[in-house]
Amino acid sequence: xxxxxxxxxxxxxxxxxxxxxxxxxxxxxxxxxxxxxxxxxxxxxxxxxxxxxxxxxxxxxxxxxxxxxxxxxxxxxxxxxxxxxxxxxxxxxxxxxxxxxxxxxxxxxxxxxxxxxxxxxxxxxxxxxxxxxxxxxxxxxxxxxxxxxxxxxxxxxxxxxxxxxxxxxxxxxxxxxxxxxxxxxxxxxxxxxxxxxxxxxxxxxxxxxxxxxxxxxxxxxxxxxxxxxxxxxxxxxxxxxxxxxxxxxxxxxxxxxxxxxxxxxxxxxxxxxxxxxxxxxxxxxxxxxxxxxxxxxxxxxxxxxxxxxxxxxxxxxxxxxxxxxxxxxxxxxxxxxxxxxxxxxxxxxxxxxxxxxxxxxxxxxxxxxxxxxxxxxxxxxxxxxxxxxxxxxxxxxxxxxxxxxxxxxxxxxxxxxxxxxxxxxxxxxxxxxxxxxxxxxxxxxxxxxxxxxxxxxxxxxxxxxxxxxxxxxxxxxxxxxx
Amino acid sequence: xxxxxxxxxxxxxxxxxxxxxxxxxxxxxxxxxxxxxxxxxxxxxxxxxxxxxxxxxxxxxxxxxxxxxxxxxxxxxxxxxxxxxxxxxxxxxxxxxxxxxxxxxxxxxxxxxxxxxxxxxxxxxxxxxxxxxxxxxxxxxxxxxxxxxxxxxxxxxxxxxxxxxxxxxxxxxxxxxxxxxxxxxxxxxxxxxxxxxxxxxxxxxxxxxxxxxxxxxxxxxxxxxxxxxxxxxxxxxxxxxxxxxxxxxxx
Lengths: 482, 251
Hints:
The complex is a heterodimer. Chain A has helices at residues 2-27, 35-44, 49-63, 104-113, 117-123, 133-148, 155-161, 163-169, 180-188, 207-214, 429-437, 442-458, 463-476, and strands at 151-154, 193-197, 223-228, 233-239, 250-259, 264-271, 285-294, 300-307, 312-315, 318-321, 327-336, 341-350, 356-365, 370-379, 387-396, 402-411, 417-426. By secondary structure, chain A is of the alpha/beta class. By secondary structure, chain B is an alpha/beta fold. Chain B has one domain (2-250): P-loop containing nucleotide triphosphate hydrolases (Rossmann fold, 3-Layer(aba) Sandwich), CATH 3.40.50. Helices cover 37% and strands 28% of the residues of chain B. The model of chain B has no long low-confidence stretch (mean pLDDT 93). Classes of the chains: A alpha/beta, B alpha/beta. Chains A and B meet through helix 11 and helix 12 of A and helix 2, strand 7, helix 3 and strand 8 of B.
């Protein structure tokens, strides 16, 4: 009886598989990576020849590179031939039909974060009707942006509609061969976001709102390019405070920012990818290369990140301060709980005169989490009068976690001021008892202390996300104490 | 309000309280005195529920309920307050924000409505006068960078806002100069009320010059060995503790 059932199962599965392959032929490439795969990706996207060449040269370079192993991370070897490098948006057939089919744990988290029902459906990947409220909202945004002259579209659309701008800037901040994961991304990236703010334009809205509604499924190898021309200003928020339904294990994204004279780019990230379970099973490997260049004088690039998700985070949003009097900032909260690992920080490269940079990094470790800050402040001989201030604090919760700090400072001009402050503290039993003696529960006490610790960074986030980020820390720390 | 019988407590494997009896009624102020290491602070901490204290025998009833079975935050919400001897610093957590969280935790527990920002601020501004504490301290991190005297006054200020039923004051007078002591004592006196009981744990008699207790107990080697009127404190000040300890031994 049971054998029969198995056979039936097999049969059914085979049938399904066959149906699936038809799909695959049109939408998904089989696993594996070689020149042909890259040609296929490029062809599917109708890319110009120069971009295909660009991809191929990145790929050939990648093949010569060793996997980096300098980070303070334990990483299982990744089989790059087992990954499928192109897959069209998920068919609605596989998606949950309603929130009832979604993991209740996930829903509980959404509820705690106060996410509206509609957005919950989007985040959980529920196959909602294509026409729903937010589409019209998005259209309104689109009109407003267009009136201001701001281009904000998917990377693929940008390649099709604004190839000359893309060609002018792509890879000029993060060269295709920059590092292992950037090279891989350059070879196989499928989509991402493109923002262009022309001369003198102040982007009329936080690009966050729009993003949250529209650009969710940007995929595994995401490519983002933001260009702010002279005197332009833009604030961009990537990611989402809610954990997203995502089966991809490896994420290798590249983000490039270019700020011309007097331009200002503010880039905020709230990353809450699946971190794996309490036992360290599963979770996203997040290997990201983010870099901005302050190309023009008096330009400014500011990175703010709140990293609470992913099993492994490998990420160093950096600023190349080429223009005189330009400013780079990096504000970071990185939290590791359970078995999460993070190796994150920044690089500030001072090239222009009187360039300034500020680094504020807050690392929180709980459970068995391992949290490393890795930062480079490099002042070249040309950067007379450069200043850097670095503050790097770690907070430990419990006895099994770890915090590590790897600051690198290279100063090649005598006319620079570089300050570095670091601290490590622990939430002590005395502090918890004090709070509890005043009637505050242990969980609330931990949240209060952690939020206090992160205040300097949350201040830098757009208002509505600062509030969510606070709640998110609370959710991510659940079960960390007691 | 508080009835302790034959309480035995171990800390790190060592028996500190060895059968302590104490009864405190609403409206009363009791002073617990005794030489160093007699178990005074242990008593205050075990009543507040500090982790690491192992109760090996006896009982402590608070308003007829088993106090020792309650979690520390539950005791606090039920009206037990401990003024710490060494108030801990909590960097990054705003003093007044913390106090608001505390009072609202208590109010929720009682089924009362939470105080809104305006009402809370009004209450805080009124109570802070009791201890002559500078208002600028309200917006600093909890106890961070406070002087010793400011920390102690902050404890009494918190007590004034939280309005506990049973206040345990652990060496609140230690480290205070005479002016600060007067201020703190005035604050404590202002909070005396017929529905509130206070237990003052102190090594020296000087606080009792300003806060007149109803009963004075002498704690020695984990037991209360003598209880008496306020004059007992004076006697201890002049004669020391040895004679009481001797008396207890020979009894």
